[in-house]
Amino acid sequence: MGLSIVQGFTKSLAMTVLSEIGDKTFFAAAILAMRHPRRLVLSGCLGALIIMTILSVLVGWAAPNLISRKWTHHITTLLFLGFGFWSLWDAFNEGEAEELAEVEAKLGADMKSNGGSTKENYKDDDNLKKQNRPVLAQFFSPILLKAFSITFFGEWGDKSQIATIGLAADENPLGVVLGGIIGQALCTTAAVLGGKSLATSISERIVALSGGVLFIVFGIQSFLSPIQS
User: Fold this and answer.
1) pLDDT bracket for residue 76 (50, 70, 90)
2) How far apart are CA 81 and CA 214, in angstroms?
3) Nearest to 25, CA basis, from 100, 89, 98
4) Which pLDDT band holds residue 46 (cuts at 50, 70, 90)?
């Protein structure tokens, strides 16, 4: 039991870190933190990722009760191998900083539609308002909700979410959820604190290559391991 938790935790942590660094939601958190108070951006992004991780693990945990464990094991193996080759394909065929540019364009268009407000305007407004707002109202501020919604819907259907479901179906769910949450917390905190300077220093190609190799290793390990009864 203890060994299975550690194995699920290790796999989930490694997969989450390599999947989320350089991901669209990583860049979105970095850019939002440049324009809004960091604590609100971190709370919104991290809250969305934790909820998404828990939901994904619950789906993966329930899968063997709906489908035979033999089939979930084979599906998980194919998912890992498929995502591995997908990541390698992205690494060799997509340009550097492509996702960063895409996220910047999307958030830039959003800012223009809201009147082109700057980071300083947001911070000034927040400083003026937060003195007169109760704690609960600050918690449900538009900035926090914006960070939450962008991250949640950005992750929905992403390969990291599907891989988490597959991992939870084949490994200890508790280990998977703990590893996923800690991995998400590390990546999101780094994005929010590091900002765009960190985001632009990351090689998306290297991250994609590393993630692809990791997924393929997981797929081979899953293929060679016996099916748990």
Assistant:
1) confident
2) 10
3) 100
4) very high
C-alpha to C-alpha distance for 96 and 200, rounded to whole angstroms: 10
- Output the CA angle 132-138-144, nearest 5 degrees: 145
Find out whether 72 and 169 touch, Cβ atoms under 8 Å. Answer: yes
Contact 155, 163 (CB under 8 A): no
**What is the C-alpha to C-alpha distance for residues 160 and 179, in angstroms, rounded to an integer?**
13
H or E segment to which residue 191 belongs: helix 173-201
Distance CA 183, CA 156 (A): 17
Stated pTM of the model: 0.72
For residues 43 and 189, is the Cβ–Cβ distance under 8 A?
Answer: no
CA distance 79 to 104: 30
